[in-house]
Amino acid sequence: MQIKRFLTNGKVLFGGFILLLLVFTSIMAPYIAPHDPNEQDLTATKMPPFWMEGGASEHLLGTDSLGRDVLSRLLYGSRVAMFVAVVGTFFAGLIGVTLALLSGFYRGAIDNLISRFVDIWISFPPILLSIVLMAVLGTGLTKVALAIILVDWTRFCRVIRGEVFNVREKDFILAAKAIGLGNLRIILKELFPNIVPLLTVLVTLEMGIAIIVEAILSFVGLSVEASVPAWGQMIALGRLYIHQAWWIMVFPMVCIITSVLGLNLLGDGLREVLDPRLKVMGMK
Amino acid sequence: MNDPLLSIKDLRIHFQLPQGTLQAVDGVCLDIDKGQIMGLVGESGGGKSMVGLSVLRLIPEGGRIVSGEILFEGKNLLALSDDEMRDIRGADISMILQDPLTSLNPSFRIKSQIVDVLKLHKGYDKKEAEIIATELLHNIGFPDPEKNIHKFPHQLSGGMRQRVVIAIAFSCNPKLIIADEPTTALDVTIQAQILRLLKNLSQEYQTSVLFVTHDLGIVATLCDRVAVIYAGELVEQALTRELFTNPKHPYTKALFRSIPRHDKRQDQLYSIEGMMGTPIDWPARCKFYPRCSEKEKMCDHADFVDFVTYAPDHFVRCLKCR
Prior knowledge:
Structural class of chain A: mainly alpha
CATH superfamily of chain A: MetI-like
Order of helices and strands of chain B: EEEHEEHEHHHHEHEHEEHHHEE
CATH topology of chain A: MetI-like fold
CATH topology of the domain at 6-35 and 42-83 and 225-321 in chain B: Rossmann fold
Largest interface: A-B, 19 and 28 residues
CATH class of chain A: Mainly Alpha
CATH architecture of chain A: Orthogonal Bundle
Strand content of chain B: 15-25%
Number of strands of chain A: 0
Order of helices and strands of chain A: HHHHHHHHHHHH
Largest sheet of chain B: 8 strands, mixed
Oligomer: heterodimer
Strand order of the largest sheet of chain B: 6-7-8-3-9-10-12-11
Shape of chain A: elongated
């Protein structure tokens, strides 16, 4: 019954498929990539995709200005994107949700402290903040993830806090107090399960945002080391040859757009399936 | 005579609002004996729920108990630490809330919600607690507990849900149950079943009940004693029969008059004139005075009206009953 609702929602199906595909390529990249992503072949630079004149099935999506295989680089690039999306979102969520639960449950001084801190944090433009952070932290995969955590936890905190305020006013919280449950148990067992639907949606949206932020950072050369292929980096390089070899730039763009679109649709679809109000509307 | 199980003494609960001090509960005294069902009647906003919540020390944020004592088996609940209070909640004193729709956690099966209380206060392991939970549901006439115990709250009807709430409330054999309008959200036939159930359980387990309601009909069928509250102040208290046959306070009388009757033709239903209003910074005098239809000259200048014993076991807060 429940599972059927998930499987009949087109957005969930499409988004879920994209997410699974990303997970698959990022894990399997070394096995499915036809070439080493850094292998240069200066005799075959800027080779077009196989269906165009001059293309070859050896390089399905062509090569870049250094003769590296675009498809292989895209597959390896999904590793960076997924690592950042998963790790960044998980820890950003952990910090944001923890603070939101404390803030929303205890309110008063604790809420004031946390909320004002979030306000100040949010007032920095996120892209600028992450660029500054990367400049300070230096390049590297874990550092990109860290920058994304530091930028994005506030979004979790804001949104979840609102929901906690909503849930904690419900009678079952009062009832939980009346049967003698302690605060920690009420937060974990009564409050938290009731924000999970919202959190699920938020996580998928946040993964999309993390992928974009990473792409921006690697575009300006502040993300992973130059030896690690990343989509943003590929776009930056392809931009130089846009008139002679459009595929170097367009394919990574397609990857970014498809991933983010897929994750957003997944989030949207999950909301439709999980939100009780929308459920009632769908039954009419 | 034995000491009462619960004894509320001069309870005052104030809320600090920008407009002034809201005297939600203003000097309430109430005794409940073992096994007794006490009705607390009044209109919305009169402070009756607040009295109930204060016994469990769960009054909403912003409210402060400024004075008074709540003695439960001789212990002052207001002086206990938070941990000691938590041990009492659910085990010795439990609560039934008004709306069974919202007082069960929508994310969990009802089984785990009953089992949780048993595990917490009685130290049963999961298996034992499950068996006891099923038995409990059997006893309160919950249909097919073996199957339905695995359901989520939204899969049950209102009456069934309220039975679950009652099962949770009675699960640890509490000595006192605070029932805050437990039947208001149910339809009338289910109401009757739930009330009968409460009465039977109370007799069977010798559990006292503080029954908060605005429905005098319920009080008549269920309660041993009644206290009438108006604007945070008790105005009359007596045994149910005495209060119903011989109401003394003008407010109580007016309440009785506002019950629609089928045996007498009425063109217009009676209602008490005016509104209660919010007791913010009200002067210390008869609170019902502005709406009273029986006020006399002496009422105009009296600045404090005490609770007087009108008859043995019948207390009234009205100058005319002195």
